[in-house]
Amino acid sequence: xxxxxxVKKTMDxxxxxxxxxxxxxxxxxxxxxTNLTAKELALHGSEEGTIVIAQTQRxxxxxxxxxxxxxxxxxxxxxxxxxxxxxxxTSLLPFVAAxxxxxxxxxxxxxxxxxxxxxxxxxxxxxxxxLLESETSGITVPYVVVGIGINLNTPLxxxxxxxxxxxxxxxxxxxxxxxxxxxxxxxxxHFDRCYQLFSAGNFEQIIDEWKQHSDTLGKTIRVQTTKDMxxxxxxAIDQSGFLLIKTKEGNLIRVVSGDCIDFDDL
Length: 266
Prior knowledge:
Layout: H1 10-13, E1 24-31, H2 34-43, E2 50-57, E3 75-81, H3 93-106, E4 112-115, E5 119-122, E6 125-137, E7 140-150, H4 161-164, H5 170-174, H6 180-199, H7 203-212, E8 220-224, E9 229-237, E10 243-246, E11 252-255, E12 259-263
Parallel strand pairs: 1-2
Antiparallel strand pairs: 2-3, 3-7, 4-5, 5-6, 6-7, 8-9, 8-12, 9-10, 10-11
């Protein structure tokens, strides 16, 4: 693994942060994808709390194999988890990550909301995306990699026009540049707290907090699933974090995975 470190001493990098969750940080100028590197580390035994950070990515990815454009100025990182909770509860880990990012953005006075399951929006525009990848072995999950991309000081002009129209950044919303390491410290502390709730089995609290920041519940939406398009009102989240939609015919549909592509303009 070729490490092009953008700080002089990778081993000392974690000392910048006041978070016990962090075990080791690998920091790079550029990577193909932080998730790919983190998955490789996880497969070779890296412990929970190992984090991979890059200033830019050549092949950043979002959900449904979309490209996550990663110009310098953004936050691009992946966190290795080794959850010891029941396998069926790992579906709540996207909520854990989304809550951590949302709370970090809110700490700057920026009104962040969560689009189910884990896109973070400000004034309806995307400011952060999250991609979780895992490996299962029987009834256990040996590891989960949580990939997070945040438009921090991202120059929106560097994004493709169609993406730019639907995106924003902390710098734009805050009106000034955000200190990179200060933001990371805030993010890691919120992630630590949210993950501690998860590890302790406080699943209802995670769901309740997610609901408080939801930009989806109560809205008329259209969701593209792997099989078809579902349209109706998002009425609830179940205990697995799955979305319950009531159609105009009165049917209740449980959506396990999908992409909310429209809101209130159907």
